[in-house]
Amino acid sequence: MALNNLITVEFTTQEVNSVNNKLDGVEQVIAPKAVNLTPEERQQYAKISYEMNVFVDKVRAYMATNPTLIPSWLDVAEMDKDIAARTVLTAWHNELTKLLEMVDDTNMLLSTDVYHSALAYYNNVKQASVNNVPGTTTIFQDLQQQFPGRPAGSGTSGGSTTTVIQATPGSKITFNLPASHKLAINKTWLNNANGIHLLNQGPATLKLFSGTSENAEPTTGQGVNVSPSTTATDIYVTSLGNATDNFILFKNTSLTQTAYMEANPMLLLIP
Predict the structure, then answer these.
(1) Strands lying side by side in the sheet with 162-165
(2) What is the pTM for the complete model shown?
(3) Which of 27, 185, 245, 264 has the greatest number of beta carbons closer than 10 A?
(4) Average pLDDT by consecutive 10-residue portion of the chain (271 residues)?
(5) Structural domains in the chain plus CATH codes
């Protein structure tokens, strides 16, 4: 079966060198002036939102018209330098974010194309090994050890891959689920959180099913509360109840297409 090529992109040596040289030039300008914050420090310091930026600008305007109210210890010249540098960095950040989104989106489709091609070869080698084609068993066994998503310590590889996500409640996740792959969400995490809202952006179909059988879709009677339906593009799961499975599973039922998803774990997490 022919693969659906999602995108074709080529870069000339001149283009690669040009971009690399420009990136090196950008780093040479920014690096000496930049700082590196720890995760704890990033939580400590404020990131000025649009509303806060309006507030700061208005304060600076009042400082200009009412200078007698400026505290004696406040270094206005340093504040102005900070404002000017932040204005420059904000403009750069916006442009770099736009470019990064272009790179990420393009790279996502390229990664999917590459994976599908590699998977086609892998499956062909696997079938050849089953048919005892000379020289294929060694290749298959070598590739099998590296198959993405293969459980550690497992000596077999199934027809699909299971991916386990332990998300941070309150954060939105974007996830690229390849064809025939599964997304597994831990039962304990889901029950401690206040559910999960899963939006399938397609083009593939996402299906919710039991961990024991792909044909046994969880229902409220099995301890799973699902709304509005198990095959909808917009899926909201509140809990697993008394279901015996450790994970709630979603499967990309397409053989060739990737499901692009956004997951919004609810805000409540009980330790």
Answers:
(1) 162-165, 182-186, 247-252, 206-209
(2) 0.53
(3) 185
(4) 73 96 95 86 70 88 96 95 93 91 86 80 85 89 69 42 56 72 68 66 69 51 50 59 59 74 52 29
(5) 7-147 (no CATH), 162-265 (2.60.120)
